[in-house]
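Aim 2 progress update. The chain analyzed this quarter is reproduced below.
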Amino acid sequence: MEELKLNATVREEKKKKVKSIREQGGLPMVLYGHGVKPQILTVDKKDFARVYKQAGSSTLVKLFVGGSQEPQNVLLHQIDYHPVTDEIIHADLFQVKLTEKIKTEISIVVIGAEDAPVVKEKEGSIITNKDHVEVEAFPQDLVHEITVDVSKLSEFDQAICVKDLNVPDKIEILDDPEEVVIMIQEPRSEEELAELEEEVKEDVEAVAVEEKGKAEESEE
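Predicted structure tokens:
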């Protein structure tokens, strides 16, 4: 992967309101880390979105503050989104030392589900039980994501556990090795579908009776 870079400027919270920064295409951020004095920064919103798409929260990013030629090694640690527009509105950056291991989370990405024989031939469903794992490693050894290829799964009793994940030797997974990451759900039988339909019908009828009772009480 290419080296990821971000350029940021130091900002004074009292002199420029956060709303104004966002309206001008900026993204407010806070930089902190072990033994580091926190800094309030601004970065271009589009640049940040581009880098975050590639880096996630587990890939090292070179941060240049205030035109400095010496980058700071950071992880994009905490991302806040607008509750309505889902737009990124704030970010926390965690400065790391390349000589110290850190604990963080790496996302799990499943591929090949549509090609799996258990899906194509037996109409099973592949269920993701975990979408990330906690790991420990030196910052420069972290990877963006852990890919799990399920295209070879062919039986209902097959599963992929944490111990089966393929990660570089320099990354230690801290989760329980026996914990299930991927499992297969068998298709429902006609009897199960009939029972489920009956349960839904009973629930709908119960809700209708309850609402009718409330309406009668209101009229009284």
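The radius of gyration is 25 Å. The longest strand covers residues 72-81. These observations will guide the mutagenesis experiments scheduled for the next reporting period.
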